[in-house]
From TrEMBL:
It comes from Paractinoplanes tereljensis. The lineage of its organism: Bacteria, Bacillati, Actinomycetota, Actinomycetes, Micromonosporales. Keywords: Methyltransferase, RNA-binding, S-adenosyl-L-methionine, Transferase. This is Fmu protein (SUN protein). It comes from the Bacteria. SUPFAM superfamilies: NusB-like, S-adenosyl-L-methionine-dependent methyltransferases. Residues 200-489 form the SAM-dependent MTase RsmB/NOP-type domain.
Length: 490
């Protein structure tokens, strides 16, 4: 699973008719049980339902919330408030749970799941929003009464205890001393699991001050970036049209100032797509280095849902090239087809590791190959509020094996003289440098690094010593994309 798999219909992570630990089937709707009181506030009810679905069904917050908002007919300020509450609560979960445990005098694992999620939402309002305390307490007790009627008195007591102390004082109380355990301290202060902080710190050369800056950035709601598709839209004109601004680095990027990109005409008519600026940069980097000889056969080995294929396809149309886009998951392959309509792109719903075995994926058949590998997605935590608490270090072995195999396949698919870009939206060294070294070694293919810094727009700051590049939210305003470019020599 990768965080890119956000197109999965919500709830599909768990078989129908089953419920997550601690939930009964009656909890599954998330709505007030028959005989319970109706919700007093639709935005909070929507946020509660989304948070409960994330924990009960392994749903993705962005998908489940947009379904709930639509079903409840919420828009404008109500929708914005529900979104802030859902995303904020999910991001802050680890620290909220520690505060709740302290206030309740028991581990949160021992609180009934519906009451626990309602309390998390309440604690978030008390500690992170301007909602007046009495309103946060009363609304939360009302919500608990409707989803876990027996726990209303308990919820009242916990909420009142939390409300008596400011967030700063809570953090002071529960965070371990920075001098004794800096990672544990940062984990509580900035709402990230410790293993992720260690991975970030390692990729940032052990600089914990810089790591803290990254953690703070990870807790901000990211700006939505559009990609103005080359040949179809001019970014400056598009920026005017959507009341946004041209991006700082990618020649295709437009930053939205707010509002939902779903409603934009440019998205509907295929002139633009939503794509982080870092993703645009790494995809374009594959095409930036000159190669000798034929340059018409390009391969995207992990294409779903089609963001980078959409950009590669638009440029291929201009340069007379053709893109083969491979995606193993059928429903995601269909998304790639949608994303590349009208472009010279052929979508293959097959395993990218079948290079040399599938006639459509011949060895040495391609001039440029992109491996945007399935990964932990630790580089895009801003966009997926629940993922930092869902991901586990135990996810790494299976992912890195797949990454190595896909890199080996890519190196075999490219012709001598051609280029392979290895990309992850994770800065975890095991997924970046280790995979790269191991995959290149095992491929048996000879290849040299191209300095990836030279393939990015001039003037980009803080790209490190090369030849690989790690982008960062707190340095570049992008997701933490990793990029390595290899030229096959023989
Ligand atoms: C990081 S995502 C790619 C994102 C995509 N390039 C984009 O820009 O929208 C990785 C994708 O690889 C797919 N995948 C996983 N294993 C694969 C395999 N063996 N062959 C082909 N695709 C695979 C996943 O289903 C997922 O869609």
């Amino acid at each position: 699973m990768t965080p890119h798999q956000a197109d999965r219909p919500h709830g599909s992570g768990r078989p129908r008719g089953t419920a997550g630990p601690g939930y009964t089937r009656d909890d599954r709707s998330g709505r007030a049980p028959r005989g319970g009181r109706p919700p007093s506030d639709p935005a909070r009810q929507a946020a509660y339902e989304a948070i409960a679905a994330v924990h009960r069904d392994d749903a993705y917050a962005n998908l489940v919330l947009s379904d709930i908002l639509r079903d409840m007919g919420l828009s404008g300020r109500d929708a914005a408030f529900a979104t802030e509450l859902t995303y904020g609560t999910l991001r802050a979960l680890g620290t909220l749970d520690l505060i709740m445990a302290d206030a309740a005098g028991r581990d949160v694992a021992r609180i009934d799941p519906p009451a626990r999620d309602a309390l998390r939402l309440g604690a978030y309002q008390l500690l992170h929003t301007r909602v007046p305390s009495h309103a946060a307490v009363n609304q939360t007790v009302d919500l608990v009464r409707s989803v876990a009627p027996g726990a209303a008195g308990f919820a009242n007591a916990v909420m009142r205890t939390i409300s008596e102390t400011t967030l700063d004082d809570w953090l002071q109380k529960i965070a371990p001393d920075y001098e004794k355990d800096p990672v544990a301290n940062l984990s509580v202060l900035h709402n990230h699991p410790q293993w992720i902080i260690r991975a970030f710190a390692e990729a940032l050369g052990g600089d914990l001050d810089d790591t803290a800056r990254l953690l703070i950035e990870d807790n901000q709601a990211p700006t939505v970036h559009l990609c103005a598709r080359p040949g179809r839209a001019d970014p400056v004109e598009l920026a005017d049209e959507v009341d946004g601004q041209p991006g700082a680095f990618s020649p295709y990027a437009v930053y939205l100032n707010g509002g939902s990109p779903r409603e934009l005409a440019a998205i509907h008519d295929g002139r633009a797509h939503v794509q982080d600026e870092g993703s645009q940069l790494v995809a374009a980097a594959l095409l930036a280095a000159p190669i000798e000889g034929r340059d018409t056969r390009w391969l995207d080995l992990c294409a779903g849902p089609g963001g980078k294929a959409g950009l590669l396809g638009a440029i291929a149309a201009q340069r007379g090239a053709e893109v083969t886009a491979v995606e193993i998951a059928e429903h995601r392959a269909r998304l790639v087809e949608n994303a590349t309509k009208g472009m010279p792109v052929t979508v293959l719903p097959i395993d990218g590791r079948s290079v040399g075995k599938d006639p459509d994926l011949p060895e040495e058949g391609f001039d440029r190959v992109l491996v945007d590998a399935p990964c932990t997605g630790l580089g895009s935590l801003r966009r997926r509020p629940e993922s930092r608490w869902r991901r586990q270090p135990s996810d790494l072995p299976a992912l890195t094996k797949l990454q190595r195999e896909l890199l080996v396949a890519a190196l075999r698919a490219v012709r001598p003289g051609g280029l392979v870009a290895y990309v992850t939206c994770s800065p975890h060294m095991v997924e970046t440098q280790v995979t790269l070294t191991e995959g290149s070694r095992r491929s048996g293919v000879e290849a040299d690094y191209v300095d990836a810094r030279t393939l990015l727009p001039p003037g980009m700051p803080k790209l490190g010593p090369g030849p690989t590049v790690q982008l960062w939210p707190h340095r570049h305003g992008t997701d933490a994309m990793f990029l390595a470019v290899l030229r096959r020599t023989a």
